[in-house]
Design a protein that fits this description.
This is Diguanylate cyclase/phosphodiesterase. The protein is built from ten helices and twelve strands. The chain has helices at about 20-35, 75-80, 85-105, 125-140, 160-170, 185-190, 200-205, 210-225, 240-250, 270-275, and strands at about 5, 10, 40-50, 55-65, 70, 110-115, 145-150, 175-180, 195-200, 230-235, 255, 265. A hairpin with a 3-residue loop joins strand 4 (about 55-65) and strand 5 (about 70). It binds ligand C2E and calcium ion (3 copies).
Length: about 280
């Protein structure tokens, strides 16, 4: 298919459907906005489930649109993926995240940062080379960067993804499997790839109060992960009761509104010192 328009890719040939006029406008605005400081990095803390110590954050991007205000990732990440903008977006998010974590480490707070990767940003670029150069430029130890991938992102080209993950793991970057339990081939994936962490999808975590099936699932995933030597993170922890259940199950880290909502990255050092005081 012919997919170029004035020399710029508008439709990804692999994309499912053409965009609506409103979405098409967003595509152009996102393309212009990238590199113009319109992406805003928010971070959400993750704590040791036993001690409550904050050891890391997840980077969650928002788009400060000049007219529409703050747009959430569910609204623009899929558009970026379908229109050839996801690699530029991922590069910008990685730079913001690595720069922030390097600043915290330099100030005496070595807190790790996790960045979400779309399936489409795994292949077709030299991601490992870019990450390596970025870590060197910002002087962030590789062990303070975690990359979160979904199970489905490993399906398109399993061998290519496995090679990429081996490269990143060799550099010392930590690898996490996101939304665990919602995709396919979970078990073979865990055995095959050099993962460090499993994130249990919040749909299961939120069912911990009252849903016996969800409790069984979460307990099994925690046991499985721990037995494989992985860290297990529970996302979507909204109250203390759920935290307590997860702690009893042996879950490694918790993340969710109970600890904090995602906050602007610049607010994190202040949030952390306040958290440590209380
Ligand atoms: P995710 O990776 O599963 O991120 C967790 C989402 O759950 C975030 O939504 C977060 O704000 C929300 N959340 C956290 N704690 C709680 C809680 O206790 N209760 C509830 N109900 N929700 C909670 P957000 O920030 O809207 O991000 C949505 C999705 O967008 C993310 O899901 C991730 O898949 C994607 N995303 C975000 N930032 C990026 C990025 O930089 N790159 C890529 N490729 N995807 C991103
Ligand atoms: Ca995530
Ligand atoms: Ca590793
Ligand atoms: Ca999730």
């Amino acid at each position: 298919a012919k997919n170029t328009h004035r020399g710029t890719a508008v439709f990804d040939p692999a994309g499912p459907a053409p965009e609506s006029p409103a979405q098409l406008a967003l595509v152009g605005e996102l393309r212009a906005g990238l590199g113009r400081d319109e992406l805003r990095l928010y971070v959400q803390p993750k704590a040791d489930a036993r001690t409550g110590e904050v050891v890391g954050v997840e980077a969650l991007v928002r788009w400060q649109h000049p007219r529409h205000g703050l747009i959430m990732p569910d609204e623009f990440i899929p558009i970026a993926e379908r229109n050839g903008l996801i690699n530029a977006l991922t590069a910008e998010v990685l730079d913001l995240a690595v720069t922030a974590a390097a600043g915290w480490a330099a100030a005496g707070n070595p807190v790790s940062i996790a960045v979400n990767l779309s399936a489409r940003s795994l292949l077709g670029t030299d991601l490992a080379g870019e990450v390596d150069a970025l870590l060197a430029a910002r002087q962030l130890p590789a062990g303070l960067l975690t990359l979160e991938l979904t199970e489905s992102s490993m399906m398109t080209d399993p061998r290519g993804v496995a090679a990429l993950l081996a490269q990143l793991n060799g550099m010392g970057v930590r690898l996490s499997i996101d939304d665990f339990g919602t995709g396919y081939s979970s078990l073979s994936t865990l055995r095959r790839l050099p993962l460090d962490e499993i994130k249990i999808d919040r749909s299961f975590v939120m069912g911990l109060e009252g849903n016996a099936d969800d409790e069984t699932i979460v307990r099994s995933v925690v046991d499985l992960g721990l037995n494989l030597g992985l860290h297990v993170v529970a996302e979507g922890v909204e109250n203390e009761r759920i935290w307590r259940i997860l702690r009893q199950m042996g879950c490694t880290l918790i993340q969710g509104y109970y600890l904090s909502r995602p906050i602007p990255v610049g607010d994190f050092p202040g949030w952390l010192s306040h958290y440590r005081e209380t």
